[in-house]
Amino acid sequence: MTSPPDRPVRRGPTWVHALTANPVSVVVLVGCVGVFSVAQLTDPENVRFLAFDSAEWPERWWAMLTYGFVHVEWNHIIVNMLILIWVGVWVERLIGSARFAVLVVASILAGGVTLLVRDTAGIGFSAAAAGVLVYYHFAFPWKRELPLRIPNVVLPVVLIVGSVAAIVFGWFASVGHYPHLAGGAVGVVALAALHRHHRPLDDDTPRPVLDQQSGDR
Question: Exposed, middle or buried by CB within 10 Å (0-12, 13-18, 19+), for 55?
Answer without folding.
Answer: exposed
